User: What shape does this take?
Amino acid sequence: MNVPRFSVLLTVRDEFLVVLWVGVVTLCLLPLRNHLLVANILMIYLFLVFLIALKRGRKLSVLATIFSLLAFFYFFLPPHSSFEIIDLQYLLTLSFMLLIALITSHLTSGLRTQVYLAENRERHIRSLYDLASELTGIVDSGQIVPPCRRFIRDNFDEEAMMLVPNETGSLQPLPSPVSTPILLSRAQELFEHEPITWQELISGRRDGCLYLPLRGNDRNQGILVLISNHDANPLSPEQESLLKTCITFVGLVLERLGYAARAQQASVQIESERLRNALLSSLSHDIRTPVAAMAGMADAMQLSPPPLPAHHQTMLEGMRHQIDLMLSDVDKLLDMARLHRDIVTLNKEWQVLEEVVGAALKTSMDVLTGYEVRITMGNDIPLLEMDAMMMERVFCNLLENATRHTPIGSCIEIDAKIVDRHVVIQVADNGPGFPPGQEEAIFAKFVHGNTAGTSGVGLGLSIVRAVILAHGGTILAENRNAGGARFEIKLPMGDPPSVTLDTEELS
Amino acid sequence: MTETMQHVVLIEDEKMIRRYVAMALTASGFKVWESETAEQGLLETASRRPDLIILDLGLPDRDGVDVIREIRLWCEIPILVLSVRTEEVQKVAALDAGADDYLTKPFGVPELQARIRAVLRRKSRQEGEGDIEEGIFEFGDIQVDMIHRRVKRGEQLIHLTPIEYQILTLLVANVGRVLTHRFILQKVWGPDYVDRPHYLRVFMAGLRRKIEENSSNPKHLMTEIGIGYRLVR
Assistant: This one.
C-alpha cells in the first residue's frame, strides 16, 4: 500500500530519534538491571517498539526492534556487557520478541495507513464537493477560475491557469492573477488534436507546467495548466484520479456554459428576425394604406357624378398611374428588405412552371399592354420545387424590365427546356440589349439600365437574382446575337414527387 | 341595379380605406353601414341583416378569420375579405373558414365592383335565379353540358378525364369565386389528399392545355398564386 508523501517523514532525523529513544530507555533501565527480571526488561523494550510502531510506522519500528535487541543482549542478558549467550533458551525468547515486534508494527502501521487514506479521501471528496457546488451556479466562464485555483492549490499545491477558445478557435487565458509564461502553442496543439492517453498527458510536464485538456461530451472545451512552484513530485494514483475527476467536471461545466450561450444567441436571433418582420409589415402597412386610399379615392372621384371636366379627368388618370408606380416600388423595396438577409425563408412547394408564368403574365397585364409575349414551354417540364410567390415576382420583374427598355410593340419571349438535369428558362426581348460590359452590373441594387429617365428604384433585377440564388439556381444576362437582351435562369430539377394520373376518358 | 337598395356592412379600421370603399359602394347604389371594429361589425350584421359583408382581415380587436367563423355559425351572408399582399396564409385561412372571396389592397374601384357583383350573383344563383340554363354552362367558346357530362369547344368535343371533369364542374359551380387548393383537393380527391397540392397543379395544367387556347397565358382558368384557382367567364 502506498501512503502519499509518507516517505517525506522518513528522514534521517527520524531514525536518529528512534536510536535516541532506545538509548534513553536503556540508560533508565541500567541502574535497575539487578532488581528487575529479564522478562520484564524485555517487556519494556517490547512496549517501546509497540509505541514506535504506532506512532512512526513499520520501518522505524523494525529499526527500534533491532536496536532494542542489541541493547538488551549487551546490557541485560547475563553475562552483562557482552553479546555472549549462556542459555540457548534466550535465543528463542529473542526470536519471539523480534516476531512480535514485527507483527505488531505491521498491524499498527497498516491501521495508520488506512486512517491516513480515509482522511485523505474525505478531504478530496470535500474539496470536490466544494468545487462542484461553486461551479454549478456560475453563468460566465470567467467565474470558473477562482474555485479551480483553490482546488488545485489545496490538493496539489500548485498554481492553475485556464485557457478557453475564442470565436476563431484560438486559446485565450481566462483572467487570473497568475501570470506565468506558458506554452500557448503546446496548449493549442493539445486542444485541437485527438485525445492522447492519460499517461502521456500526465508525464508531459514542460518547464514545470502540466497541460491538461478539459473534455466535454463531444469535444475539448479548453485547457487547464498546472504550474508547479517547486520541483514537482510525480502524482500519486489518488491525486491522478482526483485530477481526472476535476478536469472532466470543469470540461462539462464549460460545455454547459457554451450551450447556454448558444441558446441565448439563437433566441436573440429569433427575436431580431421577429422584430424585423414586424417592422417590415408595419412599414408596409403604414405606406400602403394611405397610398391605397389615394388610389381608391381617385377611382371614386372618377365614378361619382357629375362627370369631371376633361383636363381634370386627365390629371386624375395621371395621378392614378403615379400611385400605381409608387406602390410597385414600395413592393420592391419590401421584397428586397425581406430578401436582404442571407437566410431567406422560402415557402417551397412542387410547382408547375407554366402556372407561375401564367400568373405573372396576368399580374403584369397592365405593363404588357401593347407588347407581344410568346411562350414556348414543353409538356416535359417537370414539377419544380419553388416558392411560387417569389418566382412570380421574378417573372413580373423580368417582364417589367423588358417593357422598360424596349419600345411598345416589341416582342418578349419566354421559353423553358431541360438541359442536363436543369430546367433552363429564357426571358428575351428584341430591344436594344444591354450596354456592353453592363451584363453583371445590372443585378446590383439601385442600378438602372441605359435608358435615361426610367422610373423605379432599380431593385427589380437584384430581387430576381436573390430569389434565383435562394432557389439554388443561377441567372445570367447577355445580349442576343439577333439583337436584344436575354436572361437565362437555370434551376436544378430536384426529385419531383410522382402523381398518379387518370388516363381513362370521361364516359 | 336591383330595385330595392342592397345593404353592405363594411368592417374596416383604416378610416381612409373605409371612406373610399364607402364612397365607391354608395356611387354604385349600395346602402353602406360602416364599422370600425369587429365587435361593432358583428352587431351591425346582426341588426341590419345585410346582403354582403366586407371585412378587413387586419382588425385591431379580433382576428378576422375568427370573425368569419363566428358569422358562419348563424348565417350565409356573402363575405368579401380585404387583405394585403404578404398575408397569403391568412387569406387562405379566411377562405377556408367560409369567406366567399378576397381583394388584395390596394385595389381599384372597378376591381371592387366586379368582385362584389360576382359574389352577389353567385348568391342569387344559389337561390334559384341561376344562369346555368338547362344544365349548360358557357365560358369563352367552351360549353360544359352538365347533364350529358360533355365539354365542347364550338362543335368539337374535348376529351377530359373524370378528375379533370370533376375539377371543371367544381369551378363552374363557383364561377368567379376563388377556390383554395385545400377545398378542391378535398372535394375531388378526398380528405387524404389535402396536403398534396402538386396533384391539383398537375391536373390543372392538363385541364388548361385542353381548355385554354394558350395554356401559358390563360383567360379562364386563372391561377391565384399561393391561394388557389378561379374560373373567369
Observations:
- Chain A touches chain B through 55 residues (CB under 8 Å).
- Confidence is low (pLDDT under 50) at residues 1-9 of chain A.
- The radius of gyration of chain A is 47 Å.
- Residues 274 and 433 of chain A are 41 Å apart (CA to CA).
